[in-house]
Specification:
The complex is a heterodimer.
Chain A lengths: L3 H41 L4 H16 L2 H16 L8 H29 L3 H9 L4 H31 L11 H10 L9 H27 L5
Helix pairs in contact in A: 1-4, 1-7, 2-4, 3-4, 4-6, 5-6, 6-8, 7-8
Chain B lengths: L3 E10 L2 E11 L4 E5 L6 H8 L7 E6 L2 E5 L8 H7 L3 E4 L11 H14 L4 H22 L15 H13 L5 E5 L7 H16 L4 E4 L3 H7 L2 E6 L2 E7 H6 L4 H14 L1
Parallel strand pairs in B: 3-8, 3-9, 6-7, 7-8
Antiparallel strand pairs in B: 1-2, 1-4, 4-5, 9-10
The chains are: A mainly alpha, B alpha/beta.
Amino acid sequence: MDSFFEQFPVVFKALNVGFLQTLKLFAVTLLGALPLGLLISFGTMSKNKVVSSIVKVFIWIIRGTPLMIQLLIIYYFPGLVFNNPIWGGDEGGRFVASAVAFIINYACYFSEIYRGGIQAIPVGQDEAGLVLGLNKSEIFFKIKLLQMIKRIVPPMSNEILTLVKDTSLARIIALQEVIWAGQSFMKGSQGISGAIWPLFFTGVYYLVCNGVLTLLLGRVEKKLEFFK
Amino acid sequence: MSLLKVEHICKSFGKTEVLKDISFEMEKSNVLSIIGSSGSGKTTLLRCLNFLERADKGSISIEGKKIYDGEDSSFLKPEVLRKNRLYFGMVFQSFNLFPQYTALGNVMLARQLEAKKDPLYKEKKKEMLEGIEAEAVELLKQMGLADRMNNYPHQLSGGQCQRVAIARALAMKPDILCFDEPTSALDPELTGEVLKVIRALAEQKATMIIVTHEMAFARDVSSEVMFMDQGYVLEKGPSKELFENPREDRTKQFLSRFREGNA
């Protein structure tokens, strides 16, 4: 299979399978990191100095070290140090380990964005809620949450687009995402070897995906323009 | 028995004593204006009444029932605070409307959340919500905002925003409505429309405490005026008397500019 036209259907199919794994990791990370990030942001804003200090140190470590190292540690550490490879050696195990690493990493970045968004809301909003007899959770969910979301959509969009591309880091623990799939045709797979174009072609997947996300996030931003 | 009794309120921020032993009483349907220069403690006093600030010492009673005592921490429980602060309504200098709700939504929000906690909410949801909406619409009409109900705060002028804020406070049916410099963020034209609304409330016998720098308004609308200086109440008396015959030199000095302007 030397001609491009012979190779294309085989490669296309393999990349689709890989990209599905990419999308899965992206979606699971988002689903986990969005709420966890909010929780962590409450931790950093806690009046309890012990809690806020511990959380801040944790964020410092996670944001201060490469996600790639975190992936390696989370995947290999239990097996190598405790002789207890909790993740298992199959694709499913690699996926769960990747998802855990990504969720923790992204939750820390999100938490700082949340914190900025919450702290930018004037204290008068809390006070107006308080004098109307609202409790803390009502004030947060009914008054501040939407104002926070409006403020954080632009920086959040940035992180979300970065996340799509960052999923490729899971390649380091051999998660079979789209780049892993593209690379396999260099080494040789399904009768194709030494082909570099499939690896380049994976870029098209990221581009299309981020194009769609950009449109969607733009729409969310637009939707929230009804108030200032 | 007086409606509101404030006894020996003290409040410090760090080492700065802002309120030094404030005591006063107030009757139902009276309008009390608090005047004094900036930094005299007027706003802090108002904020102590609805617990946005906690007085370090002293007590607050409504109709003889204690609702706050600086020495008794049982008044500081969140649930107790929340219940007791509803004796007071509060209108802020900067309106503090909720931007993502319409004028009507701002007025209804707290009542809707309150209704949700009612055990009968599930059965009578529709009636309850309709009742809340009807009352809110009525209040906004009273404020002259019948045609603005579905506008968001950013679509309203400052004066309109402040009238929505007044309606929002009234929706909770407070015993005493407090105003913290309600017109300080408004230009003279818009100030007039807000003062008109407050005047109308006074005519309807609403009990109000107004912190203000609008001297002519304070004189005309209030039954009583309290002059504060450096954390003390220097004098308090019927509005006309205090403005025409202030006893203290400091009050005379403070009012002199205003009196010259009106002479």
